[in-house]
Amino acid sequence: MFRPSTRRTFLSDFGMGFTGLALGNLLLGDGITRASDEKVWTPPSGHAQFAPKAKSVIWIFLSGGYSQMETFDPKPELNKYAGKTFKETPHPDPLENPLHDKRSRAVVTNVREKYTKIYPMQVGWKKYGESGIEVTDWWPHIGSCVDDIAFVRSMYTTDNDHAAENQIHTGRHKLDETEPSIGAWVTYGLGTLNENLPQFVVLGGPTRPDTRESIGSQYLGPKFSGVPLTVDPNNPLPYGRRNAAVLAEEQKNEFDLIGELNGLASVEYPQDETIRARIKSYELAFRMQAAVPEALQFATETAETQQLYGLNDPKTKLAGERCLAARRLVERGVRFVQLYPSPYGVWDSHQKLKQNHETQSYAVDKPVAGLLKDLKRRGLLEDTLVVFCTEFGRTPAVEERAGGTDGRDHHPHGFTVWFAGAGVKKGIVHGSTDELGFHAADPGHYVTDMHATVLHLLGVDLKTLEVPGRKRLEVDHGQVIHEILA
N or C: less crowded end of the chain, CB within 10 Å? Predict the structure, then answer.
């Protein structure tokens, strides 16, 4: 029985014949060639309002909450008044500072205790580089890179528990509606530089179901979510390998049939985000089978490069492989790489902080410094932005819960992150905490200020990325940290 075609169906079927146009578009998205062409990588979505400084972002996240004092914001006063309470020092009591309640938003079932006995620094520190920036002795390799880094010592967040891991990526507290992650916003606003690789790659995480929001896209649609990869070139994408019993031509035929069926469904249901995302995922999965393993072939790197990342040391190898993978991915045009160099929660030092932080710092310090040095010598640091962060800091006071004597509790009131690379000033410190390392000096920077800064360097104003029917709060947009921009 003859069924008349709709205008939409006719246009869709007619368009299928223009394979040359489609081929041209695919060739335009060809890997390294396109990634290095400044005229081509202009944001395709039209959201950019100004010339971007960065093409890609490597967002390094240390899960669990590292101590700001034992990393990048040493506080001599902690040693001077160790064992005393806040009130027994000449400094204002931080618990009585109006900023404490202003910035606190505890989950009702998990209100943190207010510890007051000062815990001394657990490591020494010194000034590094021509800029003379103080870094602790657990981070000598990062210390050697300080002249290329902009430290922000005045960050704060509002969640006192590990839902802050989601908050630093989405900008929203656990008690609020979830927003898309920063990686999703970047790829939504800018699109891809390489059609054969995911535009938003995740290395090493998230490792728990309740932290999936950190790479989620929510109402932007599933095609903007992060794609987790492993650093094993033989199996980089779970369930992404072609079965050995299936010939390549057979698989191609299967994908072609599925593509045709999905294409027909998308014509009939043009507003169905799930169908469009399914089509994209099948197409990308097919192309990724060759592109992803190649991107993760570390054996092609020189012995010197592998050693630079610490691949020759079992203690630094895992973080080193993930950092090297990040460099190879942005080199091939991946827009946003979210990198977890450490397992979930390992920086959470409620007890034995010295033992924990010394071990974890050793595992991460050399690989991350190696990444910065490698990007710089290859010229990639000129258009790649590196962000290094955690979900919150640690308390200046000792955590005395259950008789504790050697750890620090969660601390959202003040902590340090850093930026390096495209469009960022070199060898500077912006912002501060008070003398005891408790509060970020007013006005401080909420986590979405990091998001706004990243998007600004990519040529995007976060406020333009509104979605019809989705009203965002002013805090969601954040404020660009202009003080660190070159």
Answer: N
Structure tokens at 304: 């010197």
Residue 30, C-beta contacts closer than 8 angstroms, at least 6 positions apart: 194, 195, 196
* Residues 60-76 as b or e (16 or more Cβ within 10 Å = b): bbbbbbbbbbbbbbbbe
E-strand stretches of 222-323 = 227-229
Pair 350, 122: CB distance under 8 Å = no
Instruction: Give the whole-angstrom CA distance, residue 420 versus residue 384.
Output: 8
Q: What tens digit of pLDDT does each residue of 211-253 get?
A: 999 999 999 988 899 999 999 877 776 655 556 666 667 656 7
Q: Which of 80, 153, 163, 155 is nearest to 121 (CA)?
A: 80
d(CA 159, CA 178): 14
Calpha distance 318→309 (Å, rounded): 10
Q: Parallel, antiparallel, or unpaired for β 410-411 and 393-394?
A: antiparallel
Tell me the pLDDT tens digit for each residue of 23-72.
444 444 445 444 555 444 344 454 556 889 999 999 999 999 999 999 99
Assess whether pLDDT exceeds 50 at residue 7. no
CATH code that applies to domain 41-236+301-484:
3.40.720.10
Average pLDDT score over residue span 110-124: 91
pLDDT at residue 181 is higher than 90: yes
Q: CA 150, 383, 287: angle at the middle one, nearest 5?
A: 130
The stretches of 202-272 forming alpha helices (DSSP H) are 248-268
Q: Among candidates 103, 211, 206, 90, which has minimal Cα distance to 159?
A: 103
Residue count of the chain, please give it: 486
DSSP secondary structure string for all residues of 27-78:
HHT-HHHHHT-TTT-S-TTS-B-S--S-SEEEEEEETT---STTTT---HHH
Helix, strand or coil for residue 326? helix
Phi, psi of 320, rounded to the nearest 5 degrees: -65, -40
Q: Please give the structure tokens belonging to residue 463.
A: 């406020």
Read off the DSSP letter of residue 110. G
CB-CB contact of 235 with 241 (8 Å): yes
Cis peptide before 206 (omega within 30 of 0): yes
The C-alpha atoms of residue 211 and residue 24 are separated, in whole angstroms, by 39
Distances (CA, A) of 220 to 70, 184, 273, 456, 465: 38, 8, 9, 20, 10
The span from the CA of 161 to the CA of 447, in Å, is: 15
Q: Quick check: 152 and 416 in contact, CB under 8 A? A: yes
99, amino acid identity: L
Do the beta carbons of residue 478 and residue 450 sit within 8 Å? Answer: yes
